[in-house]
Amino acid sequence: MNPKILIIGACGQIGTELTQKLRKLYGTDNVIASDIRKLNTDVVNSGPFEVVNALDFNQIEHLVEVHQITDVYLMAALLSATAEKNPAFAWDLNMNSLFHVLNLAKAKKIKKVFWPSSIAVFGPTTPKENTPQYTVMEPSTVYGISKQAGERWCEYYHNIYGVDVRSIRYPGLISWSTPPGGGTTDYAVDIFYKAIADKKYECFLSSETKMPMMYMDDAIDATINIMKAPAEEIKIHSSYNLAAMSFTPTEIAAEIKKHIPDFEITYNPDFRQKIADSWPASIDDSSAREDWNWKHTFDLETMTKDMIEHLS
Fold first, then answer.
1. Is 157 a catalytic residue?
2. How far apart are CA 113 and CA 94, in angstroms?
3. Residue 56: Cβ within 10 Å count
């Protein structure tokens, strides 16, 4: 029996590709995409779509009842760089949308919840290399604070009310199909667009800023696979560390130069540098690999090749 899925925030960077993959997997009519506005995109035009405000409990509840939803993927959020400019709204959106969905699961109106966390839950006091699953978490950004609080609430709703909520801490995500969405790791998406269009790129981070990254194909696979896993395999109900590769702007630029030899990069760090400096450089994701058999496919070389092929 196929799940009946509602994706909230389906027009965002992850939501777009997640919707298409889930529709291929479970059938178009079993995956209801939704977002705050109806954009003229593949997501809107390729299957059922509803306009929903993630902050409106009654709207979400109505969709769940009308479509007989079993699984909710809550992808709506204000990302790191954008959230710094509007802290109160970021907190409201990132927290209350989560409460709405957790409360629907608590009331047994839905069976399963996916909610994404992020490497932003870590802070300047977290061990930078091979950051463990359990470690010091003192986030210094609005986004990170909301994700860290969200993890605690997910765990609480699981422990106290038996809610089946699943989460992964996304590293920086790189995709050719949607433009950057206001995150600190977005330079690694933007650099490809600019390399192909202008053969040059001014990076808003310093040359040796190393951060954990992942190609979108891998992130989507991880998201779907954690939701498919039998409940007994999910041993962590806050959020799982997830990793694929780590690199610096210098390293990604060198990889791009193999395909576009006259590409040039310059550096002009802005406020996002401070955010990046507070995050890990690499992640230990052994728990995800052991518990539900997570494996990544793309490294820096194969990702760069695929990005350039799709964008050229």
1. no
2. 15
3. 14
Tokens representing 256 are: 């791009």
Residues 190 and 233 occupy one common structural domain: no
At 268, list the tokens. 């002009």
Residue 81: which of 184, 195, 203, 171 has the closest Cα?
Answer: 184
Is 233 in the same domain as 206? no
The alpha carbon dihedral of 292, 293, 299, 302 has a sign of negative
**pTM passes above 0.85:** yes
pLDDT of residue 237: 97
Report yes or no: 47 and 31 within 8 Å, Cβ to Cβ.
Answer: yes
Catalytic residue among 26, 73, 143, 187: 143
- Asked if 183 and 236 sit in the same domain, the reply is no
Buried b (16+ CB within 10 A) or exposed e, 117-140: bbbbbbbeebeeeebebeeebebb
Of 299, 279, 288, 290, nearest to 129 (Cα)?
279
- Show Cβ contacts of residue 305 under 8 Å, excluding neighbours closer than 6 positions: 259
Q: The domain containing residue 258 runs over which residues?
A: 173-213+245-311
Q: Please identify every stretch of the chain with a pLDDT value under 70, giving residue numbers as ranges.
A: none
Q: What is the pLDDT of residue 183?
A: 83
Q: Look at residue 13 in the predicted model and tell me its pLDDT.
A: 86
Tokens of 243: 């990793």
Cα gap 138→230, rounded to integer Å: 32
Question: How far, in Å, CA of 187 to CA of 300, rounded?
Answer: 14
Based on the structure, what is the number of domains in the chain?
2
Determine the Cα–Cα distance for residues 171 and 37; give it in Å rounded to an integer.
27
Q: What is the pLDDT of residue 180?
A: 73
Side by side, which strands form the sheet with 172-174?
172-174, 211-215, 245-247
